[in-house]
């Protein structure tokens, strides 16, 4: 008999993955098969094939990205800052072990170097081998994989990157310190004097305090800051926010020049639309 | 011992509502209490109080609207057409038994008459009494409740309404015929010569064929047609589409004059942004 982690159950011969969100909301995905399942020193790493969302990356029982909707998050976290910056050459991605953000960034032919700092090598290995719908089996020579703690890595950098993308998981466990003020300050220091940083800043429905905090740090540290949104069906609440901080360039999406990119979600219209926020989110952010 | 319908279960002393989507995806909401539960001649009507989404209206086990996110759907399905029409006076709502769309429409002081045709009186009664977060206990004298089949009702109307809002449930059971060509043709006939119709047109991820069909009918029948989107966290996939058809007025959201309205989601920015679509949805619609 197979043994599964607690979030996987066999019911009447079918496999179900249960994502338990604060024991108040549970989402059960019917699973075709478990493709990969292993404990790393940091977390449990699992790739399954589901009926509705195709292949999924699961860390400690939480869905991180899927073959069906992973591109939305990854296109938005990379193409928005890379389009707002007029000539990005060297960029840093912190987190993003599924390789989706790096894959999207690599579509920008202007980029010369993409440093990708991920704390858990197993996530990258598993994603590159078993989740190519998201990772694209990323083997671009401009991508420089560095398996270390992003917080320490960035502390030692100064005036080095045009764009920094912080593609963290939820603010629990390994990613907790990625939501603290010091980290935001180090990111600013690691950016060139006209650099742009982007942070995933959680749900505008369920994590309003965390979003407010991220926005307030960014607003304090950067001359230009803004929140943009995308829909990520497999994240609780569906809506997801990103917060951007820019040291020199204005955030003028209507003036940005979108290069030719093969995308499924992002385009010139979405770049404009993603900064147009609903009334209660405007109200929340104006309190800062 | 209490008996519950199959979608409600007691586990370790806690109540859970399970929404089963095609037996591939299940969402379990932790429930504080069942407020109302009764079988109407058409469907099972239930109002529960949940931890994450507050009060919820459940029809035959499917979540229709909630206190936390119901306003998004209701604001978008009503304020978008009512803002694009320059001087709406008499409007018709088909469906919308939770009264949320009528409540939003009633915020437009220019309106003189709001006919609301709902097939199931029990849904309106239960929503007005137990789900006032959505219904607002709607008692505006301009709202004219008509409890009958919307399909038959609209067949006998001609050149009568400035705006028609089709706020149907999913295309199964009572609402199935609201997705057929004849119904769309009758809606057009019931509109004045400069009228605007809006239809909820399902998920752009899970119901792509239904959305394509709605858009193709609207495109065929109306000189102007377009798809707009909103995020509805409690609908599968989070993203939701609406399709609009207009007999005379151009769909120019950037030129529309949004009247002062007390809203939580809709505003001038959202009116612009909701018509800006992601690339794969543009591709899908351009096949029509």
TrEMBL record, chains A, B:
Which GO-annotated molecular functions does the record name? spermidine synthase activity
Tell me the ranges covered by the PABS domain, including all copies: 14-247
**Which reaction(s) does its UniProt entry say it catalyses?**
S-adenosyl 3-(methylsulfanyl)propylamine + putrescine = S-methyl-5'-thioadenosine + spermidine + H(+)
Residues that coordinate or bind S-methyl-5'-thioadenosine? 43, 118, 149-150, 174
One GO biological process term is:
spermidine biosynthetic process
Print the keywords alphabetically: Polyamine biosynthesis, Spermidine biosynthesis, Transferase
| Assigned EC number | 2.5.1.16
Q: Where does spermidine bind?
A: 98, 167-170
InterPro entries the UniProt entry points to: PABS, PABS_CS, SAM-dependent_MTases_sf, Spermi_synthase, Spermidine_synt_N, Spermidine_synt_N_sf
Name any GO cellular component annotation: cytosol
The record's Pfam families line, in alphabetical order, gives:
Spermine_synt_N, Spermine_synth
Q: Quote the catalytic residue positions.
A: 167 (proton acceptor)
Keyword Transferase among record annotations: yes
| Top EC class of this enzyme | transferase
Please describe what this protein does: Catalyzes the irreversible transfer of a propylamine group from the amino donor S-adenosylmethioninamine (decarboxy-AdoMet) to putrescine (1,4-diaminobutane) to yield spermidine.
Subunit-level organization: Homodimer or homotetramer.
This chain belongs to the protein called: Polyamine aminopropyltransferase
């Amino acid at each position: 008999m197979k043994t599964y982690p607690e979030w996987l159950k066999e019911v009447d011969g079918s496999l179900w993955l249960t994502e338990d969100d604060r024991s108040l909301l549970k989402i059960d995905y019917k699973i075709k098969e478990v493709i990969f399942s292993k404990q790393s020193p940091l977390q449990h790493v699992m790739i399954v094939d589901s009926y509705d969302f195709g292949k999924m990356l699961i860390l400690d029982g939480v869905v991180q990205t899927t073959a069906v909707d992973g591109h939305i998050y990854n296109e938005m976290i990379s193409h928005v800052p890379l389009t707002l910056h007029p000539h990005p050459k060297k960029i840093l991605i912190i987190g993003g072990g599924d390789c989706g953000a790096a894959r999207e960034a690599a579509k920008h032919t202007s980029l010369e170097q993409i440093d990708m700092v991920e704390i858990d090598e197993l996530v990258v290995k598993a994603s590159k081998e078993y989740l190519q719908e998201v990772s694209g089996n990323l083997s671009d020579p401009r991508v420089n994989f560095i398996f270390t703690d992003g917080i320490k890595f960035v502390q030692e950098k100064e005036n080095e990157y045009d764009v920094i993308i912080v593609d963290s998981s939820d603010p629990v466990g390994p990613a907790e310190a990625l939501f603290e003020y010091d980290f935001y300050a180090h990111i600013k220091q690691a950016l060139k004097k006209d650099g742009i940083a982007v942070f995933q800043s959680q749900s505008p429905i369920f994590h309003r305090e965390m979003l407010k905090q991220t926005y307030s740090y960014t607003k304090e540290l950067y001359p230009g800051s803004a929140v943009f949104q995308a829909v990520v069906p497999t994240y609780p609440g569906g809506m997801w926010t990103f917060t951007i901080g820019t040291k020199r360039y204005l955030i003028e999406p209507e003036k940005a020049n979108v290069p030719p990119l093969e995308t499924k979600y992002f385009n010139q219209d979405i770049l404009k639309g993603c900064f147009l926020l609903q009334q209660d989110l405007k109200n929340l952010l104006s309190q800062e």
